Amino acid sequence: MCFTFAWAGWEGVAHDFRIFSEALRREELGFPHPTGNKYYLVDVGYPHTWGYMSPYKGENFRRARTRQLCAPTGKKEKFNYLHSSCRNIVERTFGVWKAR
Predict the structure, then answer these.
(1) Is 14 within a domain?
(2) pLDDT tens-place string over residues 68-92
(3) Would 48 be classed as within a structural domain?
(4) Please, which residues bridge with residue 69 across strands?
(5) For residue 67, what is the enclosing H or E element?
(6) Rounded to two decimals, what is the model's pTM?
Protein backbone atom coordinates (compact mmCIF):
# COMPACT_ATOMS: atom_id res chain seq x y z
CA MET A 1 0.00 0.00 0.00
CA CYS A 2 2.54 2.56 -1.09
CA PHE A 3 2.66 4.92 -4.02
CA THR A 4 5.64 5.06 -6.36
CA PHE A 5 4.76 8.46 -7.85
CA ALA A 6 2.50 11.38 -6.97
CA TRP A 7 1.99 14.64 -8.86
CA ALA A 8 -0.22 17.22 -7.18
CA GLY A 9 -1.45 20.52 -8.49
CA TRP A 10 -3.72 19.57 -11.39
CA GLU A 11 -7.25 20.92 -11.64
CA GLY A 12 -9.96 18.55 -10.47
CA VAL A 13 -11.51 18.48 -13.95
CA ALA A 14 -8.30 17.19 -15.56
CA HIS A 15 -8.81 13.63 -16.78
CA ASP A 16 -6.55 11.01 -15.23
CA PHE A 17 -5.28 9.96 -18.66
CA ARG A 18 -4.19 13.51 -19.47
CA ILE A 19 -2.14 13.67 -16.28
CA PHE A 20 -0.75 10.19 -16.94
CA SER A 21 0.25 11.14 -20.50
CA GLU A 22 2.06 14.23 -19.26
CA ALA A 23 3.90 12.21 -16.61
CA LEU A 24 5.06 9.77 -19.29
CA ARG A 25 6.08 12.56 -21.68
CA ARG A 26 8.03 14.76 -19.26
CA GLU A 27 11.26 12.99 -18.38
CA GLU A 28 12.23 15.61 -15.77
CA LEU A 29 9.44 14.31 -13.50
CA GLY A 30 11.21 10.99 -13.01
CA PHE A 31 8.12 8.82 -13.48
CA PRO A 32 9.19 5.23 -12.64
CA HIS A 33 8.40 3.22 -15.78
CA PRO A 34 7.96 -0.55 -15.39
CA THR A 35 11.05 -2.50 -16.43
CA GLY A 36 11.57 -5.93 -17.91
CA ASN A 37 8.41 -8.03 -18.03
CA LYS A 38 6.66 -5.97 -15.35
CA TYR A 39 3.42 -4.05 -15.87
CA TYR A 40 1.41 -1.42 -14.07
CA LEU A 41 -2.31 -2.12 -13.88
CA VAL A 42 -4.41 0.65 -15.39
CA ASP A 43 -8.17 0.91 -15.61
CA VAL A 44 -10.33 0.75 -18.71
CA GLY A 45 -9.85 4.48 -19.43
CA TYR A 46 -6.21 3.90 -20.39
CA PRO A 47 -4.79 2.14 -23.45
CA HIS A 48 -3.19 -1.28 -23.14
CA THR A 49 0.43 -0.56 -24.09
CA TRP A 50 3.83 -2.01 -23.28
CA GLY A 51 4.27 -1.78 -19.52
CA TYR A 52 0.65 -0.75 -18.82
CA MET A 53 -2.02 -3.43 -18.65
CA SER A 54 -5.69 -2.51 -19.00
CA PRO A 55 -8.68 -4.90 -19.01
CA TYR A 56 -10.34 -6.11 -22.18
CA LYS A 57 -13.19 -3.82 -23.14
CA GLY A 58 -16.68 -5.24 -23.40
CA GLU A 59 -15.91 -8.39 -21.43
CA ASN A 60 -18.31 -8.32 -18.47
CA PHE A 61 -18.85 -11.08 -15.95
CA ARG A 62 -22.15 -12.87 -16.31
CA ARG A 63 -24.48 -12.83 -13.33
CA ALA A 64 -26.64 -15.68 -12.16
CA ARG A 65 -30.34 -15.14 -11.45
CA THR A 66 -29.47 -14.81 -7.76
CA ARG A 67 -27.34 -11.74 -8.69
CA GLN A 68 -24.16 -13.51 -7.63
CA LEU A 69 -21.20 -13.59 -9.96
CA CYS A 70 -20.81 -16.68 -12.10
CA ALA A 71 -17.33 -18.08 -12.48
CA PRO A 72 -15.56 -16.38 -15.40
CA THR A 73 -15.14 -18.44 -18.55
CA GLY A 74 -12.85 -17.84 -21.47
CA LYS A 75 -9.41 -16.25 -21.44
CA LYS A 76 -10.55 -12.64 -21.68
CA GLU A 77 -13.16 -12.97 -18.95
CA LYS A 78 -10.70 -14.73 -16.62
CA PHE A 79 -8.08 -12.07 -17.31
CA ASN A 80 -10.57 -9.29 -16.54
CA TYR A 81 -11.62 -11.04 -13.34
CA LEU A 82 -8.03 -11.27 -12.09
CA HIS A 83 -7.28 -7.72 -13.27
CA SER A 84 -10.33 -6.50 -11.33
CA SER A 85 -9.16 -8.31 -8.19
CA CYS A 86 -5.78 -6.57 -8.37
CA ARG A 87 -7.37 -3.20 -9.14
CA ASN A 88 -9.47 -3.56 -5.98
CA ILE A 89 -6.23 -3.50 -3.99
CA VAL A 90 -5.20 -0.29 -5.76
CA GLU A 91 -8.58 1.34 -5.04
CA ARG A 92 -8.43 0.21 -1.42
CA THR A 93 -5.01 1.87 -1.13
CA PHE A 94 -6.50 5.15 -2.36
CA GLY A 95 -9.24 4.81 0.27
CA VAL A 96 -6.74 4.22 3.07
CA TRP A 97 -4.64 7.23 2.05
CA LYS A 98 -7.70 9.49 1.72
CA ALA A 99 -8.78 8.55 5.23
CA ARG A 100 -5.47 9.79 6.73
Answers:
(1) no
(2) 567 777 888 888 888 888 888 888 8
(3) yes
(4) 63
(5) none
(6) 0.69
